[in-house]
Design brief:
- It is a single chain.
- The chain has 208 residues and is α+β, with helices and mostly antiparallel strands.
- It contains five helices and eleven strands, in the order αββββαβαβαβββββα.
- Strand 7 and strand 8 form a beta hairpin.
- The longest helix has 26 residues.
- The radius of gyration is 20 Å and the shape is globular.
- The N and C termini lie far apart (53 Å).
C-alpha cells in the first residue's frame, strides 16, 4: 500500500513538472514580453537645460515615469525605487531613464538638477525633463495613458500614478503578462514586486 501511494505521488509530481516548469521558464523569455505599441514622441528640456527627445533614447532600453519634485506622497517611493533600477544597470550605455515632471512651473531645469543630486541620480542617461504643462499632460494621458492631473484637494496639488513604463530599443512599449495571461501594460513603481519585475524584463530587452 505504501509503495502504491509513493508511486501515485511520484506520478503526480512528474506530470506537474512536465506542465509547470516550461511555464515558469517561458514566462521570463524575451519573446514573451508583449509589444503594446510605439511610445509617444516627445521633446523636453532636461536638468542640464538641454533639449532631450525620444530620439536620444533610440537603441536604448529605457523607463519612463511621471512625478514632481515637491510630491509629498508617492514620489519619494518612486524615486527610491528608480535609483535602485539606476544602480542595477549603472554604466550600461544601452539603458536610460526619463523622469518627466507634471509640475513644470516649479520644476525648472535648475530645480530638477538639485533634485537629481539629492536623489543620487548620477547616470548620464537619466534625464529629468520639464516643458510646457499642457504638452506634458498630453504625453502622459494621451500618449502613455498614464494618468496625471492637477487637483487642489490633494496633498501637493497634483495627482498621478505610481506606474513605470518600459520601452525597448525600437521605441516600443513592452510588458510581461500577469498570471492569467493578460498584459500588465505598466509596472508598479511603488512595490518591490513591480520593481523586481521591471529589472528582470530590462535585462531581457537589453539582450534583444
Amino acid at each position: 500500500m505504501k509503495n502504491k501511494s509513493y508511486i501515485g505521488i511520484s506520478f503526480i509530481i512528474l506530470i506537474f513538472g512536465i506542465y509547470a516548469v516550461p511555464k515558469i521558464i517561458n514566462r521570463f523569455s524575451g519573446n514573451d514580453l508583449v509589444e503594446m505599441g510605439p511610445a509617444p514622441k516627445f521633446e523636453l528640456t532636461n536638468q542640464n537645460n538641454k533639449k532631450i527627445s525620444n530620439k536620444d533614447y533610440e537603441g536604448k532600453v529605457y523607463v519612463v515615469e511621471f512625478f514632481f519634485s515637491t510630491c509629498p506622497s508617492i514620489c519619494p517611493i518612486m524615486n527610491r525605487n528608480m535609483v535602485s533600477i539606476q544602480n542595477e544597470f549603472f554604466g550600461n550605455p544601452n539603458f536610460g531613464i526619463a523622469s518627466i515632471t507634471i509640475d513644470p512651473a516649479n520644476d525648472t531645469p535648475e530645480v530638477l538638477k538639485m533634485h537629481a543630486k539629492e536623489l543620487g541620480a548620477n547616470s548620464a542617461n537619466w534625464h529629468f525633463l520639464t516643458g510646457d504643462k499642457k504638452y506634458i499632460y498630453s504625453i502622459a494621458n494621451s500618449g502613455f495613458n498614464i494618468f496625471a492631473g492637477e487637483n487642489s484637494k490633494v496633498a501637493g496639488g497634483f495627482e498621478h500614478s505610481g506606474l513605470f513604463a518600459l520601452i525597448d530599443k525600437k521605441g516600443k512599449i513592452r510588458c510581461r503578462k500577469d498570471d492569467i495571461g493578460n498584459p500588465i501594460m505598466y509596472y508598479d513603481g511603488l512595490e518591490i514586486e513591480g520593481v523586481n519585475a521591471i529589472k528582470e524584463d530590462i535585462k531581457l530587452l537589453l539582450k534583444e
